[in-house]
């Protein structure tokens, strides 16, 4: 009997030690978030909403752009046109420096944008983030728990949820844009974002990826982990094998990514590929995209992003995590 008690105690200690190790030094998930450090005037100026978002009875979409672009470059020629046509309300947030600096600062803008969009809509909202925009939104949800009750859906379009080994290869010893160092697979920022738990009750998570992604690699790094009833990790090629979307088009022009996103924000739960008609696989461009100008639109988007990234200040090391990230912060 004594040996049995010793064995049980040992197993319990090992289990508790493993749980502590997975949590690392990071803050408990329900500790209130810190006061935002960005001036309120800057936060307020960064969010804009359609008139239909005010008092809406529908799930308002909040768009968070990826690296190097603002909402106009990212969404005005595609998503905004598509939602305007069907009268679906939306908001968008402009991130500082087009998101080439510290992602922790960008996340503060997302926190305010979530609170603002929820306040004006008076209901739960959908957060839609492309690339870095998907993970900056998850960082906001992780360290500002009050925002979770405001969000019904988180949709990541090729979100860098677990970093990218391309960043590992490009910046093995630092000396890159701040955001790129924070989005390495070994980055402390990524570790903190995913600490303790990756998803939260009450929010449905849809993470869309493509096997043709040229920036967020390897396949599967976009996936988030949580209850199957509330998490859908979907490769576009698992739905439509011939889909050719890459990292840029999955967030800007792809018809299937649009359909799955709209499916997610108009149903209870994450996107369900079974509800997408097979005929959609023959479509390339989402509603709102002009087939006569899409090549130029994509080129403009890519040039805007690459120019901003090329001009970004170089950091020797990953920006230090803020004190609030830690259990003893």
In short:
With 329 residues, the chain is an alpha/beta fold. 37% of the residues lie in helices and 11% in strands. Strand 4, helix 6 (132-143) and strand 5 form a beta-alpha-beta unit.
Topology of this protein?
Layout: H1 2-23, H2 40-45, E1 47-49, E2 61-64, H3 71-75, H4 79-86, E3 90-93, H5 103-121, E4 125-130, H6 132-143, E5 151-157, H7 165-170, H8 178-182, H9 188-193, E6 204-209, E7 231-235, H10 236-239, H11 255-265, H12 294-310
Parallel strand pairs: 2-3, 2-4, 4-5, 5-6, 6-7
Antiparallel strand pairs: 1-3
Helix pairs in contact: 5-6
Describe this structure in words.
The protein is of the alpha/beta class and 329 residues long. It has a single domain, classed as 3-Layer(aba) Sandwich (Rossmann fold), CATH 3.40.50.1820. 37% of the residues lie in helices and 11% in strands. It contains twelve helices and seven strands. The protein has helices spanning 2-23, 40-45, 71-75, 79-86, 103-121, 132-143, 165-170, 178-182, 188-193, 236-239, 255-265, 294-310, and strands at 47-49, 61-64, 90-93, 125-130, 151-157, 204-209, 231-235. Strands 1-3-2-4-5-6-7 form a seven-stranded mixed sheet, with helices on both faces. Helix 5 (103-121) packs across helix 6 (132-143). It is globular and about 50 Å long. It starts with a helix and ends in a 19-residue tail after the last helix.
